[in-house]
Structure formats: C-alpha cells, structure tokens
Amino acid sequence: MSDLKYKIIIGLEIHVQLCTKTKMFCGCALEFAAEPNSRVCPVCLGMPGVLPVMNKKAFEYSVLAALALNCEIASFTKWDRKSYYYPDLPKNYQISQYDLPFSEKGFIEIPLESGESKRIRITRAHLEEDAGKNLHTAGNFSQVDLNRAGTPLLEIVTEPDMNSADEVKALAVELQRIVRYLGVSEADMQKGHMRFEPNINLIITKDGTEYKTPIAEVKNLNSFRALERSIEYEAQRQLDEFLDTGKVMQMGNKSTRGWDDANQMTVLQREKEEAHDYRYFPDPDLLPVEMNDAWLDEIKSRLCELPLQKQIRYVTDYKLSDYDAHVLTAERSTAEFFEQAVSATIEQAFIFGGDPKKICNIITQAGLKLAHEQNCTLSELGFTPENVARLARMVEDGYVNASAANTILEEMTKTDKDPQTIAKDMNLIQKSDAGELEAIVDQVLADNPKAVEDVKSGGKKAKKAQGFLLGQVIQKSKGQANPKIVSQILTKKLS
Amino acid sequence: MSPKIDKAQAKKVAKLSRLDLTENEIEEFSAQLNAVLEYVEKMNELNTDDVQPLAHCLPVSNCFREDIVKESLGTEKTLANAPQTDNEFFKVPKILDDSAAT
Amino acid sequence: MHELTAIQLRDKIKAGEITSTQATKKVLQAIEKHDKIIGAYISVFEKQSLERAAEIDKKIAAGESVGQLAGVPVAVKDNMCTTFGATTCASKILENFHAPYNAAVVQKLLAADAVIVGKTNLDEFAMGSSTENSSLKQTVNPWDTTRVPGGSSGGSSAAVAGRLCMAALGSDTGGSIRQPAGFCGIVGLKPTYGRVSRFGLVAFGSSLDQIGPLALNVEDCALMLNVIAGHDPNDSTSVDEKNAPLCDYLENIDKPVENLKIGIVPQFAAGADKQIQNAINNAVELYKKLGAQIIEIDLPHFEYAIAAYYMVATAEASSNLARYDGVHYGHRTENPNDYIEVYSKSREEGFGKEVKRRIMLGTYALSSGYYDAYYLKALKVRNLIRTDFTNAFEKVDSIITPVTPTTAFKIGEKVDDPLQMYLADMYTISANLAGIPGISLPCGFDDNNLPIGMQILAPAFEEQKLLRIAKMFESKTDYHKKKPAIIES
Ligand SMILES: [Mg+2]
Ligand SMILES: [Zn+2]
Q1: What tens digit of pLDDT does each residue of A348-364 get?
Q2: A83-131 pLDDT per residue, tens
Q3: Shortest CB distance from A85 goes to which of C80, C236, C325?
Q4: CB contact at 8 A, C457 and C431
Q5: How many CB atoms lie within 10 A of CB A367?
Q6: Residue A146: per-residue pLDDT
Q7: B14/C360 CB distance under 8 A
Q8: What is the Rg, in whole angstroms, of the alpha carbon atoms belonging to chain B?
Q9: Least confident of A141-155, A404-418, C229-243
Q10: Mean pLDDT for the stretch of residues C35-59
Q11: For chain A, what is the domain count?
Q12: Do residue A144 and residue B69 have CB atoms under 8 angstroms apart?
C-alpha cells in the first residue's frame, strides 16, 4: 500500500439577489412567482433604444454587504458589458463589472465546530444584473420568462480557503445571516436568492509527491444540503478519478458539473473550460460611480453588529452555550427581541431585567416554536420583551416552573395580561408553602416504602430513588410543587 | 505582409457575432476588414503609454434613480413583437446545453 | 408655403392666418407628388397627422396656449421609437417592429404640438454616409436625383431640402446629420453629447450618438433644439442642467458674437476638392469682414480620428446590435434547426452587408487578443483628440472646416469600397469623439449646382454661441434660400 493523503480545496462564487423593490436598471417590480413575463418593460426586455439607469438602493445595499465582509470600497467603479448569447439574456450582454469592481479584498469569519472561527478571504464583490429564466418543459421548445431579467445580483468571489464541506456550509450559513441582518437580501436558497458555485479540487500527496486534481465547478445547487453533499461527492469522485487515471490539473482542464439532486451526484456538463470570449468593455450607457467619504460614512452608519460578533458576545457576556447563542443570533429579529428582553427595565420593584439564560430558554424552547408555527417573528407574536423578562424572572424565582412558563408564554400571545396575572388565573403558581408540601411528601413516602428503603440504604440506587420520589410529589401536586423546596423537605425527612 | 484577419479568423469572428455568413461574404469581408484594419493600425504611430483611455467624453458620474416601482408592460405587450410565443412565454427551439454564464 | 420657414409657419398658424390642417395637407400633397422620386420617407402618417393638426387648430381656435412647434409638420428619422407606425431603422430585422414607447425626443415634439408627418429613411441602423445602406428603399438627393443625399440621416435631409416637411430630426454618430445637411444644402446641428436625450434612439455607437435638428435655416435649428434639449432621467448620459444650463437658443440669435475668434486648420484644406476649399475660404473671408479674428490652429491628432472612430463605433455597435436575435422581437428565420440557428440565421438574413461588416469589425476589436491593440488604443487616441480640441478652444471660439471632401457623389459610386466611404467622414468624425457640438450650413454651390457645406465646431455646451456664429454668416448670404428645381416642378 502506498502512502496517500489528500486535502480538499474549495473556493466559492456566490450570487446574492438583493431585495430592492425594483430591478437594477428599470422600475419593474421584483416579485417572486409573478405571472410569466408580466414584470417586464422595454428596458429589461432590451428593446431598441432603451437605456439603463442605476438603482441607487441596489448600489448602497451592495456596499453595505461588502463593508460587512470587510472589503475595501473603491472610490471609482464602472460598469462593463459581458457578451454572450442566450435566450434568457435579452440584450445578449449582461451589465456587470470587470476590471474595476466596487469592492475587493475582504474576509468573512466563519464559526467552526470546535468553537473557533476561521477567516475566509474574499477576492472581490461586484454588482451585476441577473438573466431571465429558460424553462425546458414544453416538448421541442424552451420557454423564456424575463421577469427575473435585470434583478440586482451581488457577486462575491472567495479565495480557495475552505477545506471541507462543513466549512463551506458554515460560510454559506454565515453569509446568509449577514445579508439578512443587513436587510439587503432575503437569502432564500430555494427561491434562488443565494446561489453557490463551488470550485473544488484536491491536493493529493502520494508517496511524498504532491498532485493537484483538475478543478470542477459545480452548478445548480439549491439547498445547503446539496452544497454540502456535492462537495463530499466531488472529493470522492476526484480521488477515485485520480487513482484511476492519474489526471492532474492543467491549463484549461477545468470542468463544469451540474448537481443532480435526485441521484445525489454531480454530472459532467462541460469537459473543458470553454474558450469563452466575453468581450468585456465599458458600458457607454452608464456613468461611473465615484464614492466620497461622506456617502461612505452614511452607508457605514447603517451597519449593525454582525451575527457572529453577537454570538460570541452572548457566550462571554451572558454565559450562554454556543448552541443557544447561535440559535438566538440566527435571525436579527430574534436577537433584537432577546436583547430587548435582557435590557428591559421593569417598573415593578421586584424585577430589573431577567436572567439572560432564563430568557434564552423561554425564547429558544417556546418562543421560536410559536413563531415557527405562526410563521412570524417573535415580536409579531403579540407579547413584549418586557413581559418575557418578567416571565423569566418568575421562573428564576421559582414562582412558576419551566413547563408552566411555556404555557404562560403561549397564553401571552392571546392576551395583553402580564405573566403574573396569567399564572394566577391559570393556577400555575408553584406551591412553595412548606406545610402544604410536607403533607404531600408524607403521603408519597407512605405510598412508596421500597423507594424510601433504597434512599435510606444509601446504596447505588439511592440517588435514583430520591429522584423518583421527587417526581411523585411534583406529579401529585399537578406540577405546581416547587421542586427546590420539595427536594429540601425530602432530604430532611430521609436523612 | 500577413493579413490582419484571414478567412479562418473571419469565420471565428462571424461565429462570435452569431452571423451565419456565406462563403462569399467571408471572402469579401475578410478582404475589406483587412483593408480597414491596416488603415486603423495608423494609430500605432502614436505612443499612448501615458494616455488614459476615454470611454465617456464628458467627465460626469453618479447618475442614479430611486428604488420606486414603475408600471411594467404586462405579459401581452411584452410578447407583442415576439416571433413565437405560447401567450405566456417566448418560445425558442429546445435549448440542450444549459450553460448560461452569470 | 415653400417660402416659409418653420418659425414663420408656426407664427402664422398661431395667428390664425393659416391652419395646421392646411399646412399639413400641403406637406402631405408634396410628399404624394415628390416622394415617389425623392424616397425620403419610410412611413407617412397621413390620417393621423391630419387628426393631430385638427386638434391643434381646435386648441388655437379655443384660445388655448400651444407649444413652440404649434401645428408645424415635421419628420423624424426612423431610428427613433414611436408608438405609432413601425420603427424599422431601415433594416429587415426590424421591418415589422412596433415600439411600445416613444423616444424622449418624440415625446418632446408632441408636447411642443408638432405634427409628425412621417419617419424618414436612413442607412440601416444609421451605418453609412449615403443612405444607400437602407434595406428598405433608396433616397435620392433633391438637387440631383442621380446622387446620394448623404447619410445616414439622408431621408430627413432630403425631406427638408425637398420641402416634404418643415424640419426634421436626425442622429449623428460620425457626421450623420452634418454630412447629409451639407449634401442637401440645408442646416444640420449635432448638439453636444449629452445635450439631448438618447432614450428611444436606436443605439449605434452609444458614446457617440446624438440627436439633432435638420432645418432650412439656423433659426429653425435653434427652435428645434429648444424643443428637444434637456436632461432626461431615463438617459444617464444626458447632462444635468445644473452642470450645463439650458438656454433659449433663439434669444440673441441675431446678435453677432463680439471679438469673435475663428480657428482654421491649414492641414484640412488639402483633403477637400478645390471648389469646396474656395467656398470655405470665401466664408472665412466674410467672417473676417464681419470683424472676426482668424487664427490658424493645430489639431495634431486629427489624422488618427477615423481610425479611432471606426474602432470605437463598431465595437459599441457590435454589442448594441447583439439584441437583434429573433428571440424577443424582430425577424426570425424560418425553420431553424436549433436555437443557435435562431440567432445566426435570423441575423444573417435580417442585417444588410454594411451592418454585418461593422458587427464583424467591432467584434474583432473587442475580442480576446485584439482588445488592447484596437479598442483600448482607440480610446486612448480618443483622449488625445479631445485634448486637441480643449487646447484649441483656449485660443478660439469656434473652428471652421469643410463638412465633406466632396459634394454629393453618384449613387453606387462608393458602395463597394467601405474604406473610401469611411475616409470621407474625415471632417465630421472628431466632433463625435470629443463630444462637442457642430453645425453644417450651406456656403456655396459647385459647378454641378450641388450644395457645399461648411462646418463650424464649438466647445461643449456652447450651442448658443455656435448658432449665433452660424447666423452671422447666414444673414449675409443667400445659399440657404436656393431651392432644388424638383420642388418647383
Ligand atoms: Mg457573475
Ligand atoms: Zn423593466
């Protein structure tokens, strides 16, 4: 057996659809699943005589995203035409940016399993218009829908800094969080708002010699799952191919492969990097954009704390687990709600802000479930962050238990009553009265002599038996007994 | 002097231009284009190493529109001039190589 | 009516001395009678223009206010989009194309209460200098029907010269307004790039194209410019009025420019026919008599203009014309074998020779391996040419040149030698590369009784001064008043 090791090298080309109201160069509305060819005007139909005019918001959204990706913003940028013939491209050129993109040289920090983060370099980000859609369903014909033609796209190109499917997935998720936080894209992969095209190859070390396999670019990935799977598949395929044929990277032997989701495999589309001659040249119909400090500062002021920064802060400041911090920061609206609850100042004297950990539990265990069921954000559920803070404090104080808190939260979506009132009305307040609880404990001890025996014997079974007795007491109290107090009584009585 | 553009090259350019030129046209055009290109090479008499390319003759920049929706044409008018449609889509002979670039 | 200018007719219509309906009828009758020979029009809107004329007459009769072109019959070149009639660009590929929108200039003509009687012939996609490249019809020169009217705005020029409209719009990418104006003995103005919206003008060379008027005299040109100039939010390259304020181009038009300095370029004389040289010299002499100072200037990169122009213009054209592919509108080949043939056969069948030639040239100039040597080099030379003008205009107010090296040539004389045809644009092309305004006006006739044109160039956005300088000459001469014999027949 020869000595063989390999490393996967992955770079990404990413297209992010910006969520402006209108297209990049005309006033047609951006609307998913509109009637075919209904959101089209002479400009995006590329009719004779039409001229493009830049959507200012699309440009500013792009700059905002690039700033969040730590890119340098060019003080001068221009528009170029990229020529190729395709039925979904009405002018047979795409307005894009070639040699002077609006931003370059950034990076994105991605969280790794280990809890560390890794820096992936971004080569450039530029703005361009999307093409329409060709559909291949109708017999001998293809159908062309131009509703999407002219949609603003932010194209982001990374350096080949990723080395596993997990890292690529982490980048994709992180980028999705970022653009959603900034409000510049809906970033829904199924709807094609985010399209990832990985460039994959391997560096194989065999018998002390290094070999590089030809790069494959994979297209047609419509989910995070497909993105991950395609990389795993490609790595294996390239390794097998190398062992089989010994084929290594050469000028121009980059291939394009499409992801076949049904068969979970990549399929060869183009063997060679076709000698595309895009004939880029500056678009004479559009003026360059000059960015001055005042404008850049104004856009910078729209930046917010980014998800990964928030996540790290939650772990250090609030002692949340990585997992909880990640769940809370997945969406900006959730994080904002959480932060409002944490910093809520309540008039009532007994509470000046809830315990972040308890607030987190209520939000992640009950709040997000409700939001998901009702297909809305936390703040749209109808309760205030202040009342969630109150509820957390009630849990913390043992006033209600965790499962009662979930019931109360659900009730809070239906009424304006505060959580204390709801707890009283629904009879969910924990019994902490020692006398009342002692009576129940005595009853339980009398009913379960075997368990009492186990505890008293102090053997291996003691801990389990005490837990069992505690459970019996809680059950008998219909869940209202304060477990802390019950536990104290039990210990006292059994010692 | 070797021609700036020979017949083979003219054919390549015709393909890039999506023009299904006849053999006669290839012949005629390559000769004519050659004459023009030879004339154009006059520009090489000038040293332009320190000259900026001028794409726009007026020094203006930053022309934008606001992100405000305007009425579209609607499907019927969009398709009105199309050679072939099914009243919803433009129609073309089936595209087999789905390899658009974006 | 043959004796009236557009302004005079407008004033008579406004005063109720003549109705727009009468004027429009007269023009339609003239078209009926002479356009069989002249061939200026691709479409004539008989019914529609009479309806419009009647509307305007009604407004006037009701005492309502009317626009600057109240009731005046005008024509537009058929490369400007109109919701009425077809917009063909004189190409088979767009023969049946009906635009769903009006070009900005068409909208402005309508807002000024003009009556658009028809759309005029041109070299296909404005590519040419003789209108022989029209795929739809032949236009002849009203002064000599065996000769070309010039191009590419040959239809508009012939229509104005033949009194088949009172004024017309043309477009000028390398001389396409000024050259046919010169050949047809009328006045044609190419405004500064960015002065008039290009929205709705079918693009040829986007960084060079500019719409402008063709008219019987300088004042009518000024009137037309008043109507069409101004910023358009739909055209990013149309200039903001803050940076280039608009003015009433008719105001002070009769006022001679004081301390006028006119530049002449000695090296230009050599290129033109003797009779043209003489006419230009006489014109310069006249300015001298009017008090102008004549200064010899140097445009050192002038001789490279044609080379740079044909690279820039064709590169842009190859891209602008990529959209004519038989998919979304326009001609589609019958029975294509696959979708690629929809492109290559539709384009092969739909475009004429000159258009194909230029698409080939432009594609070549932009293609990988040739971009730097041809296209990029041309942009650099373009910069040098613009700088030449900037330097020249520090010394002079305007520059006088011939419009063309010859007067109107015979139909068929140059069609087989594109390079010779291109070289004839030598005097007009550099204004497009530099973006500056230029006017062409009649300054004599040759032995064949063919008009000779004089070109005056001015710095960017100095149209007002340019028109005043032109008017100084026109007011002392009668060349613009001569009419071709055909219209008296
Ligand atoms: Mg792209
Ligand atoms: Zn549109």
Answers
A1: 444 555 678 888 888 88
A2: 999 999 999 999 999 999 999 999 999 988 887 889 999 999 999 999 9
A3: C325
A4: yes
A5: 26
A6: 97
A7: yes
A8: 22
A9: A404-418
A10: 97
A11: 3
A12: no
Domain boundary among A404, A425, A446: A425
Helix (H, G, I), strand (E, B) or coil at A281: strand
A456 in the same domain as A357? no
If you ran DSSP here, which 8-state letter would residue C165 be given?
S
| d(C-alpha A120, C-alpha A413), whole Å | 42
Say if the Cβ atoms of A37 and B60 lie within 8 Å.
Answer: no
Phi/psi at A367 (5° precision): -60, -50
SS3 A10: strand
How far is Cα A459 from Cα A443, in angstroms, rounded to an integer? 24
Chains contacting C (3+ CB pairs below 8 angstroms): A, B
Cα–Cα distance list, A484 to A286, A468, A470 (Å) = 71, 15, 10
pTM equals 0.90
Q: Chain C residue with minimal CA distance to B73?
A: C100
Domains of chain C by range and CATH? Answer: 6-233+242-256+474-488 (3.90.1300.10)
Q: Looking at this protein, which amino acid is placed at residue A206?
A: K
Torsion angles phi and psi, residue A268, rounded to 5: -60, 130
Cβ A360 vs Cβ A392: under 8 Å: no
Is-cis flag, bond preceding C152, omega within 30?
yes
Name the residue range of residue A61's domain.
4-300
Residues A44, A138: one domain?
yes
Q: Of the residues A300, A334, A364, which one is the last residue of a structural domain?
A: A300
Residues A30 and A122 placed together within one structural domain of the fold: yes
Query: Ligand 2: distance of its center to the CA of C109 in Å?
Result: 25
Question: Which ligand does the CA of A95 lie closest to?
Answer: 1
Q: Which residues contact C29 (CB under 8 A, 6 or more apart)?
A: none
Q: Which chain C residues are closer than 8 Å to A286 by Cβ? A: 236
Concatenating the DSSP letter of every residue in C25-37 gives HHHHHHHHHHHHH
Which residue blocks in A24-145 are alpha helix, DSSP H?
A: 56-68
B93–C contact, CB cutoff 8 A: yes
Q: CB A85 to CB C329 under 8 A?
A: no
ipTM of predicted assembly, 2 dp: 0.95
pLDDT in tens, A309-357: 898 898 888 888 888 998 899 888 899 889 888 887 544 444 555 678 8
> What pLDDT, in 10s, does the model give residues B4-54?
889 999 999 999 999 999 999 999 999 999 999 999 999 999 999 999 999
What percent of chain C is predicted at pLDDT more than 90?
A: 92
Min CA distance, A253 vs chain C (Å)?
A: 19
- Closest Cα in chain B, distance from residue A26 (Å): 8
Domains of chain B by residue range: 7-44
**B23 CB-near residues (< 8 Å, 6+ apart):** none
Q: Are residues A93 and A153 in the same domain?
A: yes
CB-side neighbour CA atoms (13 Å) of A392: 29
Q: At what angle do helices C463-474 and C218-228 cross, to 10 degrees?
A: 160
Instruction: Look up residue C267 and give its two tokens.
Output: 């090296």
Residues of C in Cβ contact (< 8 Å) with B44? 373, 377
Give A314's contacts (C-beta < 8 A, 6+ positions apart): A320, A324, A325, A328, A329, A356
Closest by Cβ to B72, choosing from A41, A134, A256:
A41
Give A466-482 pLDDT, tens digit per residue: 888 888 887 777 777 77
B17 CB within 8 Å of a chain C CB: yes
Q: What is the spatial distance between Cα A144 and Cα C328, in angstroms, rounded to a whole number?
A: 9
For residue C249, give every residue at least 6 positions away whose Cβ sits within 8 Å of its Cβ, in sequence order, or none: C222, C223, C225, C226, C229, C463, C464, C467
Mean pLDDT of the residues in chain C = 96
Check residue B97 and give its pLDDT. 64
Q: What is the largest CA-CA distance in chain B?
A: 58
Catalytic residue ranges of C: 77, 152, 176
pLDDT tens for each residue of B55-100: 888 888 899 999 999 999 999 999 999 999 999 999 999 987 655 5
A240 and A276 together in one domain: yes
